[in-house]
Amino acid sequence: MSNKKNSSQETHLSWWQLSLVGIGCIIGTGFFLGSSLGIRMAGPSILIAFIIAAFATYVVYDALAKMTAKDPAEGSFRSYAKKAFGRWAGFSSGWVYWSSEMLIMGSQMTALALFSRFWFPRVPLWAFAAGYAVLGILVVLMGASGFDRLENLFAVIKVAAIIMFILLAALACMGWLHHHGTDPRPHIPDRLMPHGFMGLWSSFIYALYGFGGVEMMGLMAIRLKDKNDAPKAGRMMLILLVTIYLLSIGLAVTMVSWNEFTDKESPFVIALKDYHVPFFPHVFNGALIIAGFSTMSASLFSVTSMMSTLAKEGDAPSFFSKKTRRNIPVRALILTISGMAVSVIMGLLMPRMIYEYITTAAGLMLIYNWLFILFASKKLLELTFWGTLKNFLGIILIVLAVIGTVLHKGSRPGLFISFLFLLVIGSVIFLLRKKWNKEKGA
């Protein structure tokens, strides 16, 4: 009886609510900060990278949404990988996702602590990181409905911050804002690709990071009132994201030269730094904190759910599958908190460059799960010619993005570390294979 009640309470989202939750999960520091790195590599052609990345993201989400509509599964992409290719695929997909999100959450909390010191420079980083961790745990303990409401609010705030930049940048380009420098005119880029095609190629992975988190929508799509609305929710979300992404980045590269962008500041703060807008750095720093906390909370929520389903299906100790009356997997949450604490300590104690390599690897591991989604959809769905072509193009684009990291020396170590994680998980699968075969025979 109680299980039925919990299930009915979980299934309540309208398609537009899922779109908002998706925006809340996706817009984060990957866009607000990571886009600077992409601009440094590709110059104005980063806009091309974002358009292609949007198409690849659409293909991935469309495949995931159709599998959800056909067969709603609590484990989402992990369950579909298992159904398509067997237990090894479900095991590896789930643990790759859990590991990557653990590392990314640590980097998000470290970044949140750094943003907060903009206002409180004397407070130690660990105090801020611990505070945000506690707040994130409270969000998960609020349950699914509380999480949805907060993510909807965060989505509105983040979109409002980007729209505020677009309006201010438009006013600056029209000469209506006071300029401190010598040349207030819009900067006309002299070259579309300052580092050639290779620069555009190596920047593609950072454009994909701007859409990272789309897989979380699959975990939440099972709570739609009508599962067939899942593709529509994703389309509307991506249309809004692509529009504000292209407008904001297009204005940023128009206002200052591409080589002025750095990985230390958001491209939108850099674009307005010579204009008399004293409130903007404070407002945007607040938006960065909300963006980072929002994606961190979404990661915490999704990996806790993922661990619970892994345990339920025997791919993690069954101890972690138990849930409370409010449908919260407390034991899985405790494990996630422990992993998060280790990740934060690594972020605070490790040399910055080494930790950046590790988090780059974690970002790549998320992208590997996108490949699982596309390969699984080929096997589980009856695809039309256009669907097959779209699926093929999505796979090619993701593979090209991963290969592109070899071209950039800052991304290359992260690629090799991601392979090391895959090797470890693959070794565990090899050791468990005999046990699985025995269970299957029994």
Question: Can you put this structure into words, describing what you see?
Answer:
There is one protein chain. The protein contains 18 helices and no strands. The chain has 442 residues and is mainly α. The protein is globular.
Q: Could you name the key traits of this structure?
A:
single chain, 442 residues, mainly alpha, 18 helices
What proportion of the residues is helical, as a percent range? over 70%
With helices defined by DSSP (H or I, 4 residues minimum), what is the helix count? 18
State Rg.
21 Å
Unreliably modeled segments: 1-10
Strand content: under 5%
Query: What structural class do helix, strand and pairing data support?
Result: mainly alpha
State the order of secondary-structure elements, H for helix, E for strand: HHHHHHHHHHHHHHHHHH
Number of strands: 0
Largest β-sheet summary? none
Measure the end-to-end span.
32 Å
Tell me, what's the shape?
globular
Average pLDDT, to the nearest integer?
82
